[in-house]
Amino acid sequence: MYSMKDKVADFDSLMSPLENDVLRVLWPDKNMRVREIHDKLKSKRKVALSSVAVICDRLHDKGIVARKIETARGGVRYVYYPMQDKCAFEKSIVEDTVNKLIESFGPTAVSYFNERFKKR
Amino acid sequence: MGILESAVAFATDPGKMLIIVVSMLLGIAAILAWKKYSKPWMLYAHLMLVLSPLFYFALSINCSFSLVKGLLSWCTALFAKFVIYIVPPLMALSFIGGYLLIPRLYKLIAKPLSLKSFKELCVLTGIKAELYLVDKAKPVAFALGKKIFISVGMFELLSKKELEAVLLHELHHVKARSSWNKFSAGFVRMFSPIAWFSVSSVEREEKAADLFSVKMQKNGAYLRSAKRKVGVF
Fold it and tell me: How close B116 gets to chain A, by Cα (Å)?
């Protein structure tokens, strides 16, 4: 059996790696501008500012992050913040997945869960 | 006199035919002139010159359905009725809808933005315009009448100088009334088949706006890099 520890908070199958990275930066720091997110990511991987902007917009469309318009001296910009903290987000993913399994396979899924959790 | 007889009488009258041919030729000349000078009034002149023969024909024949004998008569009467009763209201509706409604719809998703650098650009170029902010991460900017719409994404991606280049480009559109020309072209194309074949002068206006921006900044690099950044998104 694989170790559960390695698999914690790995959303690669659900989201693109870059979306993943943006969320990891956004969770601890909360309110951030695209430029700030970009600055943090830049040290880890080679990524363009416009790509970060696209990813933030996509996460916003998916309802994972929210944003507000901030007016600064030189113009305007978005400030992004996560809708849920990391734990709540993970929980909602697990919940969605389990619900989907039960919806598609009904009794088979339920009896599998029973078996599985008895063993542990 | 039946429908077909009156139609044939109309078609064989040399005086009337001459009027129609001249009107059509002038209409084609008007669209060619628009291609060269891109003045919207030429488009409307084209539309009137091309459509007036149709109205002339429809009003000249006896287009009452009670006179219908055979399929050809029926088609002619239907066409004449369509030209007289459907086309004018359709034109009025689409004109009003396009000219009055579209800017108002855009104002729903945008709100006024006061920006010091934009005001300075207005003073510098002597062009009066209002700036509106669109709540979108995708970088877009466009001019509609005297209003310039710009998205939040533009501010996020572009540097100050690049933004200035984009705003200058849009200010030129305001000065050249590009949106009016673009709208007119779309409107006329709805009703004139000849206009479908004319290449629009919209592209040339884009080039003129670019040129204006580069000339004002005395540097083409900012506009180029702005375009590259926007294109990537």
Answer: 8
pLDDT at site A116:
85
Last residue of a domain, one of B103, B135, B154: B103
CA distance B203 to A105: 56
Q: Per the structure block, which two tokens stand in for A55?
A: 């990813």
Q: Which domain holds residue B192?
A: 105-232
Residue B94 and residue B26 share a domain? yes
Task: Say whether both B62 and B117 belong to one domain.
Answer: no
ipTM value for the complex: 0.71
Judged by a CB distance cut-off of 8 A, whether residue A90 touches chain B is: no
Question: Does residue B195 sit in the same domain as residue B228?
Answer: yes
Question: Would you give the DSSP letter of residue A65?
Answer: E
Residue B133, chain A, CB below 8 Å: the answer is yes
B117 touches A at CB < 8 Å: yes
Which chain B residues contact residue A54 at CB under 8 A? 137, 233
Among partner residues B113, B137, B233, which is closest to A78 by beta-carbon distance?
A: B137
Q: How many domains does chain B have?
A: 2
Contact A56 B229 (CB under 8 A): no
Q: Which one of B119, B132, B149, B152 would you mutate to disrupt binding with A, by most A Cβ within 10 Å of its Cβ?
A: B152
pLDDT band at B168 (very low <50, low <70, confident <90, very high): very high
On the question of pLDDT at B66 being above 80, the answer is no
| Whether B135 and B96 share a structural domain | no
User: pLDDT tens-digit profile of A10-38?
Assistant: 566 677 888 888 888 888 878 888 888 89
Show which of B74, B103, B132 is a domain's final residue.
B103
Of B133, B135, B137, the CB nearest to A53: B137
Residue of A nearest to B136 (CA): A57
Q: Give the C-alpha distances (Å, rounded to integers) separating A40 from A18, A37, B159.
A: 13, 5, 19
Per-residue burial over A10-31, b = 16 or more CB atoms within 10 Å of its CB, e = otherwise? eeeeebeebbbbbbebbbeeee
Of B133, B134, B174, B162, nearest to B228 by C-alpha is: B162
